[in-house]
Design goal:
Layout lengths: L7 E2 L6 E2 L5 E3 L5 E6 L3 E2 L2 E2 L5 H15 L5 H11 L9
Antiparallel strand pairs: 1-2, 3-4, 5-6
The protein binds zinc ion.
The site of zinc ion has 8 residues, from strand 4.
């Protein structure tokens, strides 16, 4: 993974945002580079999830997309990452 450090991650679901289309949108229609379009649209979060709910959702997705990662590993990874994200880091 080159440029991993420079990559933008959604500050809500930790998804890597690899292209402009994935950025969320502000109320005025401009791009919001902190959040992805699945989490943040038209200036609002698309769902009112708790950090645990979002984390579990992402763990499911991760093990589905990456069969080489087991659930315990994914959980450990997410538990490390999520509390640092802007949306949950309060
Ligand atoms: Zn997101």
């Amino acid at each position: 993974m080159d440029n991993f450090e420079n990559m933008d991650f959604c500050q809500s679901c930790a998804m890597p945002m690899t292209s402009e289309e994935i950025y969320g949108t502000n109320a005025d229609g401009s791009k919001n580079k902190d959040y992805c379009i699945y989490c943040f649209k038209d200036g609002e979060f698309t769902s009112d999830m708790s950090m645990e709910e979002m984390m579990n959702f992402c763990i499911e997705k991760m093990v589905e997309l990456h069969p080489e990662i087991d659930r315990a590993e994914a959980t450990a990874m997410m538990s490390e990452t999520f509390p640092k994200l802007k949306r949950w880091n309060k």
